[in-house]
Design a protein that fits this description.
Blueprint (H helix, E strand, L loop, with lengths): L9 E11 L5 E12 L4 E5 L6 H9 L6 E10 L2 E4 L3 H7 L4 E4 L13 H12 L5 H14 L5 H4 L9 H15 L3 E5 L7 H18 L2 E6 L2 H7 L2 E6 L2 E7 H6 L4 H9 L54 E3 L2 E6 L6
Length: about 325
């Protein structure tokens, strides 16, 4: 059955939050983050480690750490408006409207319970009126949908009896049963080999088609974004520096950071040096700025090979490119 009731616009507007230390000092981890996630679409969120990708996901789910202080932000769910600081409202959406696949599926699975117990728990929460026989039938069907052979037998397995790819498929089956409006996948294929990665991504796309949900794919793999996403947002040091349709951003990256990320991505069929020890890979010099001491102008300027004096004068806004209303960048050199 198609999840028509689950389709609809989902958005995040102007999310800003700090992490406070024991001494009370605040670090601005996210600043004015906005995302638009159209119905039945896959939106990629990319950036290097430490850029804030996972924190955005946890903000959606209402799972921020106790030292997080939300300074502003609002989630749009169809015709509803939910404040990002309202943890009670977000908890009510978690597991019903929003579901999440973590990088390590073991973090979502309790080792003392069987796979069947996990699936039954999802159904008890989402459909408390269903009896055990109905829940069992739906759970078995969900495991079959994500590619398990002998799904009835797999219901009796424990987490340690499954491979990493199987565990990830169990989490996808849980999302299938929850029928969320938004599925957040946080680096869902990082620990998987290439073959299993393709299977997991295919199953996520099938889940989108089956229940009509939208997907926020958080990843460092630009290859996954180019292959599976409809739109992409690039985040750097807690800010969105570029966003737009994947085809536009991949072909004509407007922000130097986006271009540098694509330069660092190694194609599987790229020429190899001979001997292999002479192989050289492109890297971005420098490192992410300290969040308590951000540059006054463009936050990427200290690492940018194209920076000019004006880049350090003022902080650039995220604005549409001339002639490309669907692509925006936070760079004075491309506006």
């Amino acid at each position: 059955m198609q999840g028509a009731n689950r389709s609809g616009h989902i958005g995040l507007s102007n999310l800003s939050l700090d992490f406070t230390s024991r001494g009370g000092a605040a670090s601005p981890v996210l600043r004015d983050i906005s995302l638009d996630i159209p119905p039945r679409s896959i939106v990629g969120l990319v950036g290097e480690s430490g850029s804030g990708k996972s924190t955005v996901a946890l903000a959606f789910m209402g799972l921020l750490t106790p030292n997080a202080r939300v300074r502003g932000g609002q989630i749009t769910l169809r015709d509803r408006k939910i404040e990002c600081a309202d943890s009670t409202a977000l908890a009510a959406l978690r597991g019903r409207e929003f579901a999440m696949i973590f990088q390590d599926p073991t973090a979502s699975l309790n080792p003392v319970f069987t796979i069947g117990a996990h699936l039954h728990e999802v159904l008890r929460r989402c459909d408390p009126q269903a009896d055990r026989a109905a829940r069992q039938a739906r759970a078995v069907a969900a495991l079959g949908t994500v590619g398990f052979d002998r799904p009835e037998a797999r219901m009796r397995n424990y987490v340690h009896e499954l491979s990493g790819g199987m565990r990830q498929r169990v989490v996808i089956a849980m999302a299938l049963l929850a029928r969320p409006s938004l599925l957040i996948a946080d680096e869902p294929t990082t620990a998987l080999d290439v073959t299993v990665e393709a299977q997991v991504m295919a199953q996520m796309c099938a889940l989108r088609d089956e229940i009509g949900c939208s997907i926020l794919l958080i990843t460092h793999s630009l290859g996954l974004v180019a292959r599976y996403c409809d739109q992409v947002a690039v985040i750097y040091a807690g800010e969105i520096v570029e966003r737009g349709a994947v085809a536009d951003v991949v072909r004509h990256p407007a922000h130097p950071y986006t271009a540098d990320l694509f330069t660092c991505d190694v194609e599987i069929d790229a020429p190899r040096a001979n001997p292999p020890l002479e192989q050289r890979f492109q890297v971005i010099p420098g490192e992410l700025p300290a969040l308590r001491d951000l540059p006054k102008g463009c936050i990427y300027a200290p690492r940018c090979a194209h920076a000019v004096a004006d880049c350090t004068a003022a902080h650039p806004d995220l604005r549409a490119l001339a002639g490309k209303s669907s692509q925006e960048a936070r760079c004075i050199l491309t506006l």
